[in-house]
Design brief:
Beta-galactosidase, Chain A, domain 5, 2 domains, globular, 26% helix
């Protein structure tokens, strides 16, 4: 998800740096580098080096700049740090909310010191999924070392000072000028408590009068002095402040060389934050918490084991796995959760921050394989959002935002259903998906649903009222009309699968028929999907109506009926020729998600060797083991998930089915572990040149078509490739 017009760019500037290597380690979590994707000018991963366990509620990061929508917390090019934040910002183009920031310093408290940035170099920085460390320098050349580790809802920060002057810690409670924050110092307990109502995406969604991000900070040293601040006003010896932008500071006696702060977060209450602290960090040491979080990462990352490859290849692969296991974030707190969809507290399990337009394609299907214990809760959370707010969300942050198009929660639900995931209410999931398919949003027939428009109502499928009447979304009535038609037709297919599983066969048949509506925006005169007006005439502006791309970007956006698309274009031969042209020059952007399945489409047209060539090409040039190792927005793990599947040798072209298209394996051997079972992938003679499949067998039986089924994988078995340097053409 980039939300930019790619046609505006005709040149790409690449910036290179020396690749870094990983230290020798037997721990798979040490092979993952959170700095991958943090460096670039425009087309880069826009990732953040989070310290957190998988799916952690609160992520911890060094902040090198003031984060807002479209500006990340961390940019590798920066050389100063403004603080260390417990953040809930999920992606570059989304907002942070309910955060808390700490910044160490030394000396006499002043406004200048409050605003002072701390210098650092990457030579003095260590970044791992479970641990971050950096050596800082103040403008007065005082040295401060900061270490961070985290649990799902708590962070632990350890500061080391030189001991020459009073050590200080500033805490920012609230940052936004139009959202209140509150902070209170409790000197006799060495404790700070507070909250803020900050939501950087608030203008994109409904008001939430009861929303707050709560925090409790417990220091291990007594306070020498303290105070609070509001804007540019410092209040010495004050213990409490309520304001739009406010914070506090505490200092420790001269000679103190070590200070530790345990920070618990909550979206429920201060008391819940204290409970989270008690349950997760309590009296544990920094090292104990660090080791436990490392083991949690080891547990998940080792569910895919790769063998016979370099540390560089391992680094790319496990960095991608790290990024794919961050979202959606856990939002429940020991049996309770705050819902941003009805602004109240509920009992149960909850997840949040789904980048569904991006992640339905590969990241969510990947979680079905490597984190299946979370998938049912993720689906049920979407159903709860429907019950509490009216629709399943497009992009919760943490409530409705209307960002991106389609209702791809339908695709995520359908993919879980067809792959046998249990543990959520299927009938309610069916009703939630059916509402997406059948009930237009309020004002749909008159609202153009412009990108990032101010909130007016829940945006489900834009132009659905017209789609149901005409069989397509008209360009003169709704923005991004062609893309909305194509993605709506795919979502119809997905809802049909859920209806079938729930026993609603009439709805299944109706929606399956409606999923063919993509033909209604195909213009045979041009051979492209094209914008059509409400009177049935083709819009004269052939460039309008597309989301993050153009006519080439969306020509092959028919995941649900690839044989039908081939027939529409004329033949398999014509289909292959059009695909070939799609990959010429700047027509295909691997940096963005709409075409992520395109490299695999040759499988459906008897030209699987071309899929193998394309997958190997993009796998090689777009993913690297260095800070600028991603060339496009990772978008909550989608770019990374594409790589993981493509390195293993198969890809879920059509989420909502149990089919995977075979690509080309990267590793001599890889194993996906499912408890006592494992799916073993062996590629004989594979190399940088030997990317072409000569033969492939599943459990000893030769595969005659380039496809796998989900059961083939999760039931365990062996997929065996014979590789060569020349394509084996049909």
């Amino acid at each position: 998800m980039n939300r930019i017009c790619f046609r505006c760019f005709t040149f790409i500037f690449c910036f290179f740096s020396i690749p870094f290597s990983f230290a020798q380690s037997t721990s798979v979590s040490d092979l993952a580098n959170p700095l991958v994707g943090t460096k670039g000018v425009w087309f880069y991963g826009r990732t953040t080096p989070f310290v957190t366990p998988p799916f952690g509620m609160t992520h911890w990061t060094a902040c090198t700049r003031n984060s807002i929508i479209h500006i990340p917390n961390y940019q590798y090019y920066d050389r100063t740090i403004t603080g260390f934040r417990g953040t809930h910002k999920p992606a570059m183009w989304m907002g942070d909310y309910g955060y808390v920031t700490l910044k160490p310093s030394v000396g006499k408290v002043s406004l200048k010191l409050l605003k002072q940035k701390l210098h650092f170099t990457h030579h003095n920085e260590i970044s791992k999924p479970y641990y971050y460390s950096v050596k800082l320098s103040t403008q007065q050349f005082q040295k401060i070392k900061t270490e961070m580790t985290a649990t799902a809802r708590c962070g632990v920060l350890h500061f080391e000072f030189e001991g020459k002057e009073n050590p200080l810690v500033f805490m920012e409670a609230s940052q936004l000028p139009d959202s209140n924050g509150w902070i209170k110092i409790i000197p006799d307990k060495n404790q700070i408590i507070g909250w803020n109502a900050d939501r950087q995406s608030a203008h994109l969604g409904p008001q939430l009068p009861h929303f707050k991000g709560y925090f409790v900070i417990q220091f291990d040293e007594a306070f020498e002095t303290y105070g609070v601040w509001k804007g540019d006003e410092l209040k010495f010896d004050s213990t409490e402040q309520l304001a739009n932008a406010c914070g506090a500071w505490v200092s420790f006696k001269v000679g103190t060389k070590s200070v530790q702060a345990k920070v618990a977060t909550s979206f429920i209450s201060i008391e819940q934050a204290k409970e989270n602290m008690q349950k997760e960090v309590s009296d544990k040491s920094f090292e104990q918490i660090k080791n436990e979080t490392q083991q949690e990462w080891n547990k998940y990352l080792s569910r895919i084991e790769v063998e016979g490859v370099s540390k560089k290849q391992q680094g790319i692969f496990y960095s991608a796995m790290y990024h794919s296991l961050l979202f959606p974030r856990q939002f429940s707190e020991y049996g309770k959760y705050y819902s941003a969809f009805d602004d109240t507290i509920h009992s149960g399990v909850s997840y949040n921050d789904y980048s569904l337009w991006d992640t339905y394609r590969a990241q969510h299907p990947l979680l079905t394989l490597v984190a299946p214990e979370h998938v049912a809760g993720m689906v049920q959370s979407l159903v709860q959002m429907y019950e509490q707010g009216g629709y399943m969300p497009k992009w919760p942050n943490p409530t409705y935002t209307g960002i991106m198009i389609g209702t791809h929660a339908d695709a995520m639900v359908a993919d879980a259903v067809v792959k046998g995931v249990k543990g959520f209410d299927l009938e309610k999931a069916y009703r939630a998906c059916m509402k997406d398919a059948m009930v237009p949003s309020k004002g749909d027939s008159t609202n153009r649903w412009a990108d990032r428009a101010l909130w007016t109502a829940v945006e489900a499928r834009a132009g659905l009222s017209w789609y149901m009447k005409l069989g397509y979304v008209p360009a003169d009535k709704t923005n991004e009309s062609v893309s909305n038609t194509l993605e709506g037709a795919y979502d119809d297919f997905c809802v049909a699968q859920v209806a079938k599983a729930a026993g609603h066969n009439d709805d299944y048949e109706m929606l399956l028929k409606r999923s063919k509506n993509y033909v209604n925006v195909y213009n045979p005169a041009t051979g492209f999907m094209a914008p059509k007006n409400s009177d049935g005439a083709w819009n004269k502006n052939t460039r309008t109506g597309f989301t993050e791309g153009g006519s080439w970007t969306y020509l092959f956006a028919v995941q649900q009926d690839i044989p039908g698309l081939i027939k529409l274009l004329g033949s398999k031969e014509i289909f292959v020729k059009r695909l070939n042209k799609n990959f010429h020059w700047l027509r295909y952007w691997h940096e963005n998600e709409p075409g992520h399945h395109y490299t695999y489409l040759y499988d459906y047209a008897d030209a699987a060797w071309r899929t193998q060539k394309k997958v190997a090409h993009y796998r090689t040039i777009k993913y690297h083991n260095r800070p600028h190792g991603l060339t496009g927005d990772d978008d909550c793990g989608q770019m990374s998930a594409w790589y993981i599947f493509s390195a293993l040798g198969f890809y879920p072209v059509t989420p909502g089915t149990d089919v995977y298209a075979i690509g080309t394996p990267l590793f001599p051997k890889a194993s996906i572990h499912f408890g006592e079972k494992k799916f073993e992938i062996t590629a004989h003679n594979v190399s940088k040149k030997n990317i072409y499949i000569q033969s492939v067998s599943l459990n000893g039986k030769v595969l005659m078509e380039p496809f796998l089924h989900h059961a083939d994988i999760i039931n365990g078995g062996k997929l065996e490739f014979e590789m060569g340097g020349k394509p084996k053409k049909n």
